[in-house]
Amino acid sequence: MDNSIRKQLFIVTCINIGQLIVGWSVGWSAPIIPKLQDLETSPLPEVITDLQASWIGSLLYIGSVVGPYVTSILSNIIGRKPCLIIGGLLNVLAYILVVSTNNIAMIYAVRIVSGLGMGITMVSNIVYVGEIASTHIRGILLTSTSIIGITGTLLVYAIGPFVSYVMTGYIALSICLIHLLGIIFVVPESPIYYAMKDKDDKAAKILNMLGRAKDVEKVVDTFAKGRESSSKIMDWVEIFTIKSNRRSLLITFLLGAFQQTSGVAVVLFFATTIFQLAGSTIKPDLATIIIGVTRLFSSLIAPLLIESKGRRILLLISMAACACSLSLLGVYFYLDRIASPVLGSIGWLPLVSLIVYFFCYEAGFGTIPNAIVGEMFRANVRANGSALAITLTWLVGFGLTTSFTTMLDALGGDVTFWLFGASCIVAFLFTYFFLPETKGKTLHEIQEMMMNIGQFIDGYSVGWSAPIIPKLQDADETPLADVVTDFQASWIGSLLYVGAIVGPYIPSYLSNIIGRKPCLFFGSFLNLTALLLIVTTRNIAMVFAVRIISGLGMGMVTVSNLVYVGEIASTNIRGILLTSTSIVGISGTLAAYSIGPFVSYAATGYIALVVNIVHVIGILFIPESPVYYAIKGKQIESKNVLRRLGRVEDLDNVFESVRGTNPNEAITWKAWIKIFTVKANRRSLFITLSLCTLQQTSGVAAVLFFATTIFQLAGSSIRPDLATIIIGSTRLIASLIAPFVVERAGRRILLLTSTAFCAMSLSILGTYFHLDKIQSPIISDIRWVPLMALIMYFFSYEIGFGTMPSALVGEMFRGNARSTGSAVSMTTAWLIGFGVATGFTSMVNFFGGDVTFWIFSFSCIVAFLFTYKFVPETKGKTLNEIQEILGRGLTRGCAGLLPAKSLERPHLPMAGVNLNLLATGLHIGWTSPVLFYLSDEAQSVLPEPISINDGAWLASIGTLGSVFSNLFLIAPLVDLLGRKYSMLVLSIPKLGGCFLYLFANQVWMLLAGRVVITIGDAAMFSIIPVYASEIASTKIRGSIGTILHFMCSLGVVIMFSVGPFLSYNNINIMMTTIIAAAIVPLFFLPDSPYFLYAKGKKEESREVLLYLRDSEEQVNEEIQEYEIAGQQGQENKLDVIKSKTFRKSIVLALLLSIGNMLVGYNAVQFYLQTILASTGMSLRDEFGSMIVGMIQLAGSIFTAFISDRFGRKSILMVTSTGMGLGLFGLGLSFFLTEGGSTSNFLNILPLISLIVYVFSNSSGVGALVWVVLAELFDDKSRGLGMSASLLTANLIGFLTVRFFPPITNAIGPAITYWIFSANSLLLFLFILFFIPETKGKTFSEIQDLLSNKKNVSKKSKGEKEDC
């Protein structure tokens, strides 16, 4: 790290000690008010009243309102540094008053003086940091002030409940004194202040010291111009007379006001009181500590993303999530007010809601406004503007905290928190429209939002029947005179399709006559009619009418949405916007699943009615499609809309796409004829119609409409209504993945992946029904399978199969045929869906559930083959280009649209080695079920149950085999035999180890087998990343590396999921079979092109590269790199070691390997089932291990999509933070259990913590560390470097696994996991400060970066600036 940056960080650290005190002051009232209301802990002669408590909370704002103006007046007179000192002195005075308190007046004085110090310190900090920080880290340093403030609040939450009132003062006083000394002796005056005072030499000196020499001239010139005319009065006047300052004040004040009206101050000041009020099962003081930890961890996210992703997107995500969590808290208080019987089982909800609230709040809403305040004003008014904005904000906070108890009494907790949630929604809209980053994008996004409200109603209609049919079959809940029959229920499910079949033809006919916008309005109006019928239902005919009219509206809205969005969207985001329609539709279905079971039949209509009214109003404000104007020949109108969309350069493309179109053609038979006579349209229809048809025959409609019924039919152990909510949530989460990867991975690859996993999951569900039909004895142990299979099905379905066909429908037709073609495709699909939904119960009765779901699975296999053969890739193509390629012929067109071979072919040899990593994953997870069996006398193959000591050796001794492999085998073999034959030679002994397992009857046989197999596993872990990095291009090196981790994770998942249900021998037979199968593909792999070149086989190397790369130019570039590496490679190993760059690489690699092992992941993996059994959860440990395994698999899939999108370093930092949080939660669960605490939340906290921990590891640290390690070394040192890294990792891994049981027994599991959590934080800091970003760089560029060559530094810097 540059020395000047270190100086900036050191100075800001001193500044932030003051921010720590600010946070302490903010949170101080939460643990103190309960003490003051208890005579035994209060320093006062009598307890305080509720009114006095509210004043203690809110008086902080009295001082904080005045404080900023002290800074604003004095900062331009005496300087920034003296203002910091004054703020520090006031904080010292406040805590002297705390330690000498003897009456209520002194406490009031404490809060006022603290507020005064807080106001001066906060404004001075923001102004000062904004002026000294370099541009590229200013956002990070400004957000750090919020993070440290949160840390201060966490400290007082964690310490306050356990020490006396006076002690809270002594602790804060010592921190205040350290802060004051730091300000006096370490912090220099601001260079901006010196420049304003004509002290240019001093300003230049400070800027040079800060590493900002290039800014000297700019700073001096800026203030030379306005020095004479500047005055204190004019500084205030300029806030209101200069437009940029006025706008800055409006934005900063409103953001701050929305911050306060979201209730953050209320929750912070009254956190303990809120939990007491809610009657939560969690101890209030413990809950506040958990919230504080959450705030600290989540606030670390903002600095990582603020400079790369921008302020606005973080704010929007944060505000939306805050609104949701506060709404949930309001729901809890509502259920408490009506004395709902469900309340006893959700005592954990207040804590979870506030954890989500603060996690989301601190990731954006709580930190970014402070950064914006420090950036937006001109220098001469920065202090004044910041003071005014913060003062107005704190006035709002003062009013809110003072009136909080009154609001609770008058409105109740439910309405109060719903108001806070509404404030977050208003903040979201304000950010959406007015924050500067919205320029040029707002209209486009508003349109998409309006479209998606209609799609939400469509999704709601689809899912509505699942919770409603059971209500209509219950005499107590139905609004009808009689309960409905099964036959009537099937019609309720399927009649939606009757209307949906007709609906698409209405926009098909009208969209080219009256426009796209009126069609959207008519569809929304039909949905409104259907919802009015729901709330007035009196007989079965009205229910049937609801479904038909809903289907009619759904058909119109869906087709109109696809056409409209496809026409307004820019090429680079068209796929994202089209898939978002499916996502919002899924959200609607989830809403129906989540709300329907818990409200009345009529209430389901009222809820959707409110949403639909918003949609109807919103449609009125969107513009007409530019393509419709082009069809009508209205060039000016079309151009105006395109300009507003930021697409004015697409005007020619839009008119070209509709050239030769007759505006009146839509009302004649010619429009229909062209669907079949124009070659491009015909091919488009063939593809979209086939995909939509296969989509329906996969059974999605049947599962959605009869979800609750399927679980009842399966006799699942999961409550049907709960299962449907879980499935709905899974659909939503999975569908969110598609927009992130659709423009990167493409439509085709997502469809192939999705259909393959859909086929697999439906086969599993069919197998469950078959086992149930033959009354297999295993069925009682796998009642969870229907839920897991459908979660897997919908997760896979929504990633691609559920979203991509809709996107393709919106892309593939010509402008004049788009409505008609979309109508034909969607109508045919819905007609088939109607048949499937109507005939589902008959199919189950006739074929049985097994054959029915196997048929659905077969349909997914057909969809996979169809996609592979016929579906082109439309990513990155304009609508016009897609038509041109389709018009040339499907085969040639596909050739132009399929992914380049450079992206596909490296995956083929990797497919051959992936089985080896699958086998390695099986062996990693092997100890979890096997140790459980070996410790059970009835199931052990040993003469007696295995001891704890022998079990620890069995889990850990494999790492000694890894050490041997890394020390003596891998490096010489890789250099002698090459990558391919080294993998082959070291794989074969693994079979011998498997046979030792199979015939073991003594512990030594198990230990020997463990060592032998692990030698081969270590070889695979060392050689395969090297092989992968050498055959992959820089574009996909990260994704290939993470696919390797995915396969290893898949092996672990299989062992965790299947192992607990197999016998010891069957586990080993399965593993032996897969290891044997994995050896076969190794015979057919090409060797590494680099190794071949190094051995003089240049022609063979070139042939391999020509196969792997997209162009001969890339091949020549890599050959040139090999040549350079070969010339440098004449050095021997000693010369390599002498290289400064290698020494730096090896130190980084060794420390990264050690850090990766010290987070305890191996120990958790090897002892997972034992850990789960020791938590005392009601969930069976084998099911828990299966869930954890599935999460690991999901994480490794996730990282494959993001590794080359976000960069290695940022992913590693975020996931190491997540690991720390998960481990902290796991330790906390053991701590509370050992302390005798009992609650429903404690029953699920261990599993939640493990899920967070495992997902974080598998989605980042566990996968990308090995990728980064392979990238840190050059070609000639990679084998040596990887061997040394793995050797170190295995030694540390051995120690953690071997001594995990005795350490846990000695100091307790809670402290053990907290140590691992602290190690995760250290890993985060190490990555932050020392690991370089390797994404997108060649190996030569990475080496130049490590050796600090200036040309690379400049290049990297230039690239960042371009971004």
TrEMBL record:
UniProt protein name: Major facilitator superfamily (MFS) profile domain-containing protein
A GO term, aspect molecular function: transmembrane transporter activity
Domain Major facilitator superfamily (MFS) profile: 11-439, 447-875, 913-1335
A Pfam family annotated for this UniProt entry: Sugar_tr
Chain ranges passing through the membrane: 9-33, 53-71, 83-100, 106-128, 140-159, 165-187, 249-274, 286-306, 313-335, 347-373, 385-405, 417-437, 449-469, 489-507, 519-536, 542-564, 576-595, 601-622, 685-710, 722-742, 749-771, 783-802, 823-847, 853-871, 911-932, 952-974, 981-1000, 1006-1028, 1040-1061, 1067-1085, 1146-1163, 1183-1203, 1210-1232, 1244-1268, 1280-1299, 1311-1331
Keyword terms: Cell membrane, Glycoprotein, Membrane, Sugar transport, Transmembrane, Transmembrane helix, Transport
Entry GO terms, CC: plasma membrane
Compartments where located: Cell membrane
Tree of life domain: Eukaryota
Annotated InterPro entries: MFS_dom, MFS_sugar_transport-like, MFS_trans_sf, MFS_Trehalose_Transporter, Sugar/inositol_transpt, Sugar_transporter_CS
Main localization of the protein described in the UniProt heading: membrane
